[in-house]
Amino acid sequence: MAAMEDMMPLMTRATERTARLVRTVRQEQLGLPTPCAEFDVEGLLTHLEWVAELFESLAHQGPGVERGRYAGDFPERAERTLAAWSRSEAWEGTSPAMGLPMTTLAHMYLVDMVVHGWDLARATDQEYEPEPAAVTRALHFTGQMVEMGRQRGAFGPPVAVPDDAPPFDRLLGLIGRDPAWKP
């Protein structure tokens, strides 16, 4: 399973980077704004928890899941998600719930971890440097899927960035984030 062997290390490291950021969020930071306009920090953490739960279910060919309330357990949920995706059968076929190939879903998860890690770091004034290989993979995938992502409400209108901007800035601009965003 080339896709699994290639993607699992990227997914794992991106998840671990984001989980490290999540663990340092303080109670008084939950109301801070984030670069993702629809979420404050608590909303972003709730979204990450939902993403982890959703992609764990999808890896088991399960249903979509409803977004719950903030629980404060993203790192634990993310560990279960990675365990679910570490099984070779998780990479086979198409998701009954989403109607997309499992490899596409794995890429969607990677984009979420990479970008939302940045969102959280910016909102809470933390250092964040995504792995270059994860950024390259996320940028390539997003370039192919951006219109579908916009239609489904996952991405905002593009933000102009210079053609020679670093790949991560181009990824952020492509999905509707301003790489220069500050709280």
From TrEMBL:
One Pfam short name: MDMPI_N
Mycothiol-dependent maleylpyruvate isomerase metal-binding domain residues: 13-121
SUPFAM superfamilies reported in the protein's UniProt record: DinB/YfiT-like putative metalloenzymes
InterPro entries: CHP03086, DinB/YfiT-like, Maleyloyr_isom, MDMPI_metal-binding
A GO term for molecular function: metal ion binding
Entries under NCBIfam families matching the protein: maleylpyruvate isomerase family mycothiol-dependent enzyme, TIGR03086 family metal-binding protein
Protein name, per record: TIGR03086 family protein
